[in-house]
Write a structure and sequence with these properties.
- The chain is built from twelve helices and no strands.
- The chain is mostly helical.
Length: about 325
């Protein structure tokens, strides 16, 4: 009975974490797109503010005893911090230079890349049935985005770089939490300021710091409010990504991301008048079918594992 209560409590926390990630991830896409389209706020500068906001949020959590920091050697998280910069910068540049459909199409390709990386570099095996669930997801994503397959060259470059760096980042998040024996807040607490320093050294070379279009430019109050809101939501996104990957896996997180993909497309249709055809609706259903299949198979495999152990003499 106590074990069942613990399982129920763990499931509630997992559902809560997924819900926070769902809402914050969808919000951040539309808030950032709104800032880029309507205000022209510099992309990398906004990313830097997200990093700083994430660290300040974690600093506040630490002062309120939400978690206890754990001392980490900087060289242990250098590559994770650099990949975090690339992950956020390239996905934001993809969002800025592509439509929401193209942006989501590229992100959906992260799942097969992660499976390939974990198979080749970490010798992790996936059942054939799990791999087959990628087929309806990929077909659904393509159907969803057929109207906008024609990427521009710059947008395609950012999208491709975003897929590679995001895949590396998400794999490393899970492996580093296990390697360093830290939770999501402890790891992000050290990684966020390091990423801020790396990106802060690069931003002045690509974007102005003052004048029109610069960080210290004459921005109106509505712009500043939207940027602050974006930073708060980014904190929730970053924290929930770490928490979900640390408590499940990078592949599971990406499968959940495909569900967000369908909702984001609907939001793009409502907020930015992106077209929504019959093929896209069919693609959403196909993608959801793949997600449900993956979830069912993953749960079945997890339940079968303890059962096989219990049957051993």
């Amino acid at each position: 009975m106590p074990v069942r209560l613990q399982d129920l409590s763990a499931n509630k926390r997992l559902v809560g974490g997924l819900l926070v990630n769902l809402l914050s991830s969808i919000c951040i896409v539309f808030i950032n797109k709104w800032i880029y389209v309507h205000y022209g706020f510099p992309n990398m500068t906004l990313t830097l503010l997200h990093f700083v906001g994430t660290w300040l949020g974690l600093y506040g959590c630490q002062k309120m005893d939400v978690f206890s920091p754990k001392s980490l050697q900087p060289q242990k998280i250098v590559w994770l911090s650099l990949s975090f910069c690339g992950f956020v910068v390239f996905t934001n540049l993809s969002l800025q230079n592509n439509s929401i459909g193209s942006y989501q199409l590229a992100k959906a390709m992260t799942t097969p890349v992660i499976i390939a990386l974990q198979t080749a570099c970490y010798h992790k095996s996936f059942s054939t049935r799990i791999k087959l669930t990628l087929v309806p997801i990929t077909v659904g994503v393509v159907l969803n985005s057929m109207y906008d397959i024609s990427f521009n060259a710059l947008g395609m470059t950012f999208a491709a770089l975003g897929v590679v760096v995001t895949s590396l980042y998400q794999v490393w998040v899970g492996s580093k939490q296990q390697e360093l024996q830290v939770n999501s807040m402890q790891l992000l607490y050290y990684q966020a300021p390091m990423s801020s320093v790396f990106l802060g050294a690069v931003v002045p070379w690509f974007e102005p710091l003052s004048g029109d279009g610069g960080l210290l430019g004459p921005w109106s109050l509505p712009v500043l409010v939207m940027v602050m809101l974006s930073c708060v939501v980014a904190f929730l996104v970053n924290l929930s990504i770490y928490w979900i990957i640390g408590n499940t896996s990078a592949v599971t997180y990406n499968m959940f991301g495909h569900f967000k993909f369908c909702i984001t497309l609907i939001g793009g249709y409502l907020l930015f008048q992106d077209p929504l055809s019959f093929n896209q609706v069919l693609g959403m259903l196909c993608t959801l079918a793949g997600i449900l299949s993956y979830t069912h198979l993953k749960l079945s495999e997890q339940e079968a594992g303890p059962s096989r152990l219990a049957q051993r003499p």
